[in-house]
């Protein structure tokens, strides 16, 4: 389909992200059409590597997934734009030409999602250890018991809790557990009957 356009020259294809990097190194194209979900090396990782090795190559993401987190990650990694794979041919052709000029391209269906995500208040992620500490708090453990369970000092437990409180925007253990549950960071095991 792309090769049928007079101003396009398809110089390579790749079945995974690692092969895509090899093709780019060999051919140095103007534009790369990149999928996000690929074996061996995913699209976001491939984009990050391309940005460090070939920053002049424009990457246009084509994906069936309209998950805003994946698209934001791709743009943050250096993608010039993103289209859904079911975009009409003419839209794809225009997007490739725009990407070659260094212009940003974003499917209209994705624009609202991205703006919503960018406008949402930032939520700093909890570390794995902070989640472990909160999970033990949720079970009713004291700081001392948590320290014994995780083989860390009671002071370290308190530090993890303070960091978790700050990230979750709360002031106490109960609120921290409640917010973590609401955000899906913790799951309570229901007792068996």
Automatic annotation (TrEMBL):
What residues does the Response regulatory domain cover?
1-100
* Pfam families for this protein: GerE, Response_reg
Q: Which residues form the HTH luxR-type domain?
A: 119-184
Enumerate the SUPFAM superfamilies for this protein. C-terminal effector domain of the bipartite response regulators, CheY-like
Alphabetically sorted, this entry's keywords are:
DNA-binding, Phosphoprotein, Transcription, Transcription regulation
Question: According to the UniProt entry, which residues carry 4-aspartylphosphate?
Answer: 35
Question: What InterPro entries is this protein classified in?
Answer: CheY-like_superfamily, NreC/VraR/RcsB-like_REC, Sig_transdc_resp-reg_C-effctor, Sig_transdc_resp-reg_receiver, Tscrpt_reg_LuxR_C, WalR-like
Instruction: State the name under which the record lists this protein.
Output: Response regulator transcription factor
Native species of this protein?
A: Allokutzneria multivorans
């Amino acid at each position: 389909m792309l090769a049928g356009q007079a101003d396009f020259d398809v110089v390579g294809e790749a079945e995974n992200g690692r092969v895509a990097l090899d093709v780019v190194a060999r051919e140095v194209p103007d534009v790369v059409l990149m999928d996000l979900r690929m074996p061996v090396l995913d699209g976001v990782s491939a984009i990050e590597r391309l940005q460090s090795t070939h920053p002049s190559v424009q990457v246009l993401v084509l994906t069936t997934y309209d998950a805003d987190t994946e698209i934001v990650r791709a743009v943050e990694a250096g993608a010039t734009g993103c289209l859904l794979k079911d975009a009409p041919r003419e839209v794809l052709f225009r997007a490739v030409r725009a990407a070659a000029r260094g212009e940003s391209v974003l499917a209209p269906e994705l624009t609202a999602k991205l703006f919503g995500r960018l406008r949402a208040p930032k939520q700093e992620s909890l570390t794995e250890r902070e989640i472990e500490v909160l999970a033990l708090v949720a079970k009713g453990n004291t700081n001392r018991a948590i320290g014994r369970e995780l083989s860390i000092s009671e002071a370290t437990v308190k530090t993890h809790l303070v960091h978790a409180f700050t990230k979750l925007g709360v002031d106490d253990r109960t609120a921290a557990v409640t917010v973590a549950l609401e955000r899906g960071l913790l799951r309570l095991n229901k007792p068996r009957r």
